[in-house]
C-alpha cells in the first residue's frame, strides 16, 4: 500500500501539495509510445488521486490502452520542490462517492464559477472518473 511519510519535510510537502495544489500534471502514454503530459484538476482522498475528464479525450484513450501513469507537481522555476508520483489509472464506471464529490467541488468551486459552470454542469461535461492508485513517490 502506498504511504507518504509526512514526518519528513519532503513527505509533509507532498501531502500538503496533494491537498492544496490546484493543478497536477498527469502524464499518460500515447499509442506512439510518446509521453503525453496534461495539467489537470484533481483531488486526493487519502489513497487515490481522482481526476474527472471529458469523454473522448486523449488521456482517456491512453489510459484505456496503458494504465501506467505519472503525476507531478509544478517545480519551482529553479527546479526545486520536485515531486513525482507513479501508479495505475483506472477508468471508473462508478460515480465518485458523495464525500469525494463534495471534496472535489469545494476545492474547485472558484474554478467552476470562473468557467460559468455549476458543479452539476461540470460533472455532466467531465463525466469520466479516473482513479489513480499511487505506488511510488520520488523527488526532492
UniProtKB/TrEMBL annotation:
Pfam family, one: PNPOx_N
Oxidoreductase is among the record's keywords: yes
Record-linked InterPro entries: F420-dep_enz_PPOX_Rv3369, F420H2_bilvrd_red/Heme_oxyg, Pyridox_Oxase_N, Split_barrel_FMN-bd
Domain Pyridoxamine 5'-phosphate oxidase N-terminal stretches: 13-135
Keywords on record: Oxidoreductase
Protein name: Pyridoxamine 5'-phosphate oxidase N-terminal domain-containing protein
Lineage: Bacteria, Bacillati, Actinomycetota, Actinomycetes, Propionibacteriales
Amino acid at each position: 500500500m502506498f504511504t507518504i511519510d509526512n514526518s519528513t519535510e519532503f513527505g509533509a510537502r507532498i501531502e500538503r501539495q496533494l491537498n492544496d495544489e490546484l493543478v497536477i500534471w498527469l502524464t499518460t502514454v500515447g499509442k506512439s509510445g510518446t509521453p503525453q503530459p496534461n495539467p489537470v484538476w484533481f483531488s486526493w482522498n487519502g489513497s487515490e488521486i481522482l481526476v474527472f475528464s471529458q469523454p473522448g479525450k486523449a488521456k482517456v484513450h491512453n489510459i484505456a490502452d496503458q494504465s501506467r501513469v505519472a503525476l507531478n507537481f509544478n517545480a519551482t522555476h529553479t527546479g526545486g520542490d520536485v515531486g513525482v508520483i507513479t501508479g495505475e489509472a483506472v477508468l471508473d464506471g462508478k460515480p465518485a462517492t458523495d464525500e469525494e464529490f463534495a471534496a472535489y467541488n469545494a476545492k474547485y468551486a472558484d474554478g467552476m464559477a470562473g468557467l460559468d459552470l455549476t458543479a452539476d454542469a461540470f460533472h455532466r461535461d467531465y463525466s469520466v472518473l479516473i482513479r489513480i492508485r499511487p505506488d511510488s513517490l520520488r523527488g526532492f
